[in-house]
Amino acid sequence: MKPVRTRFAPSPTGFLHIGGARTALFSWAYARRHGGVFVLRIEDTDVARSTPEAVQAIIDGMNWLELTHDEGPFYQMQRMDRYKAVIQEMLAAGTAYYCYTTREELDALRAEQEARKEKPRYDGRWRPEAGKTLPTPPADVPPVIRFKNPRDGVVAWDDAVKGRIEIANGELDDLIIARADGTPTYNFCVCVDDWDMGISHVIRGDDHVNNTPRQINILKALGAEVPTYAHLSMILGDDGAKLSKRHGAVSVMQYDEDGFLPEAVINYLARLGWSHGDDEIFSRQQFVEWFDLDHITASAAQFNTEKLLWLNQHYMKQLPAAELAARVAPRLAARGVDVSAGPSLEKAVALYVDRCNTLNLLADAVETFYVTVAPSAELLAQHLTEEAKPAIADFAAGIATVAWEIPAIAALIKETVGKHGLKMPKLAMPLRVLLTGQAQTPSVDAVVELIGREGVLAALQKNL
């Protein structure tokens, strides 16, 4: 069996988006499953739009998702001599030819074909054929180079996702493989790259289906082995429309900025168009062990933000408190919050993780323990009632001597509300507001224990 070699070949004209990340994940996982090689190739021939910043954004996104490549990154712009050498070989072999048709002539040809309600296409006027006499090449027209596509028969492949696909060669015109300035074109470069890099499986978005018959014909003309193709269906947004910037993150790295864990994003991407029975939650290693091309659905996958948030909270809750705190700490530091002056960050995040589904929301929740709390007048007016004030004063007195553990603090709260004939919320709610500036917190006895005796007494004295 031929060794498995897959590739991820993004164009660096923007960020690594969700669709690209899923393609990279599936290509990476297939190589890992079969002990193969995962190649990273940067298709940067669009010089006008490709930028070093976009290249770095792609690599950053891959690193954050831990989709480590085995070879590369290879850059197409650094392989121009190789492409041009192959084109010269094709010219010599008669599988490519010079075409001197001008832009004006092509425009006129298109207009005539459209007027006849025909499919616009190059008419092969410069295509060499047996018994055909070609015009004299005009001296003032720099030629393009076209691939001499077969005219008869069909080009077919068994797509690993979409099944058997056949396209009549008569539907394909002679593709330009080098522009008038000598620059090779995308579809040609891809073929040479896949050939040279020994790519066995091309896993990519189904927006490339139309390129595939052209690329297969070029590969066959080169005498190269044709890889297995697997075209992934598009991803739709929450609203069922084609996924776009307005549906969320522009970049995979935006998910990092928004407080998502890479483990959650990987798990979520894996389920976008692929399944393993009813399994929803699985590790990266399980995914690699299970992944195959047979269970990729040919229908469009739909992005579900709520599902991603649910998964993210699951993974947050699975992290040890020390690891969770380590991931929240930089987010607090970026806000200028010094956690060394407050309670244990590990205990704080462990207390609040059940209430938060992103690292950013968790940072928002625990920040109150490391900054000066100033309860709003509205919250104070709502919860700090006259009947609550004597109970809070008694509670403060008891705090000075109570054993500093949650059961003892809980007993003190219960004793205090009983003494003053109050229901629990009449004391718990104003305590939450006075200590954290928030009306909603985890169990108030746990919050009190976390803040510490001195912190609680200082906050009560200050805010009362």
Average of pLDDT = 94
Main β-sheet description? 3 strands, parallel
Question: Could you tell me the number of beta strands?
Answer: 12
Low-confidence stretches: none
Helix content: 40-55%
3D shape = elongated
Structural class: mainly alpha
Q: Beta fraction of the residues?
A: 5-15%
Distance between the termini: 77 Å
Output the radius of gyration.
32 Å
Quick summary of this structure?
With 464 residues, this protein is mainly α. The chain has helices at 18-33, 52-64, 80-93, 103-115, 186-196, 212-222, 252-257, 262-270, 284-290, 305-318, 321-334, 345-352, 359-366, 377-383, 388-399, 406-419, 424-436, 444-451, 453-463, and strands at 5-8, 37-42, 71-75, 96-99, 144-147, 154-159, 163-168, 176-178, 201-205, 228-232, 235-236, 301-302.
Describe the structure in your own words.
It contains 19 helices and twelve strands. It has a three-stranded parallel β-sheet with strand order 1-2-3, with helices on one face. A three-stranded antiparallel β-sheet has the order 4-5-8. Strands 6-7 form a two-stranded antiparallel sheet. Helix 12 (345-352) crosses helix 13, helix 15 (388-399) runs antiparallel to helix 16 (406-419) and helix 16 (406-419) packs across helix 18. The chain is elongated and about 110 Å long. The chain is mainly α. The N and C termini lie far apart (77 Å).
SSE blueprint and pairings:
Blueprint: E1 5-8, H1 18-33, E2 37-42, H2 52-64, E3 71-75, H3 80-93, E4 96-99, H4 103-115, E5 144-147, E6 154-159, E7 163-168, E8 176-178, H5 186-196, E9 201-205, H6 212-222, E10 228-232, E11 235-236, H7 252-257, H8 262-270, H9 284-290, E12 301-302, H10 305-318, H11 321-334, H12 345-352, H13 359-366, H14 377-383, H15 388-399, H16 406-419, H17 424-436, H18 444-451, H19 453-463
Helix pairs in contact: 1-9, 5-6, 8-10, 11-12, 11-13, 12-13, 15-16, 16-17, 16-18, 17-18
